[in-house]
Structure formats: C-alpha cells, structure tokens
Amino acid sequence: MVLISNSTNETEKIGEKIGKNLRGKEILALWGTMGMGKTALARGIAGFFGLKEMVSSPTFAIMNEYRNSRINIYHFDMYRVCSEEDLESTGFYDYIDKGIIIIEWSENIRESLPETAKNIIITPGGDEKRRKIEIEGIKIDKDIVG
Questions:
Q1: 2-135 is classed in which CATH architecture?
Q2: pLDDT the model gives residue 146
Q3: What is the pTM of this model?
C-alpha cells in the first residue's frame, strides 16, 4: 500500500494507523534518507499505544525503549552500524520477540534483517514536505489522513 503524507502531522497519523494494526512482536524496517520522517512515523506508532511524548531519534543512544502496561517498543537507529559486529553490539538480537522493534536506517543492516520484517519505505513525494510512504506486510485502512 502506498500513502501520501503532506506534513509531519500526517506522517504521525499514518504511524498511529500502523500501530493500530500491530500485535506486539513485529519488526518494522524503516527505509529512507535523512529527514524523510522516520522518527515522526515512529512517534505515531508509539502514539497509538500512548507513548508519543517519549519518542525521539535514537541516533546517539542507538536504541530507545518505550513501554507501558500494554506494550514494549524498541526503537533502533542503525545509522552508525557498519558491520555484523556493530549490529551485535547494539543488542538488537536480544530484543526480537520481546515487543515491537522499529528500525531506522534499515539500509545499513539489510543483510541481517529477519525475513519477517515489515518494510516501510519513505521517499520524497514531490515537494519539500510531501512524502510517499510504501507499507509492505501490514494491512491498514486507506482513510488514513484527512
């Protein structure tokens, strides 16, 4: 499914709709260059579970954990991960099947992504704020934004 977002707010709303369709142990591989809205999408997903205010880019921390009584979300940033050894040092494999895993910069661990990962590809949509969001492996309603 391909959706168009015209703003950060709409990207977050799309994330909320994605969150609504998650069961709790999915791996979401976010693909997109700098500034495409990966963290905004993660904020929307966490927002569905009441965790929106906690979400920030894990660029320097490598992984941020958001949790409440309903869900555990593990938000990874693989921007600085360059090898399998780097990936192992993040603790990534320890979190599989323990909650929802959201991965920014999935491009950097392409070969190590589990086959069950759901891909969300974010690309420019024509102007500065518009984004094309392609969602693979998650069924969601088409009436997402508006």
A1: 3-Layer(aba) Sandwich (3.40)
A2: 42
A3: 0.92
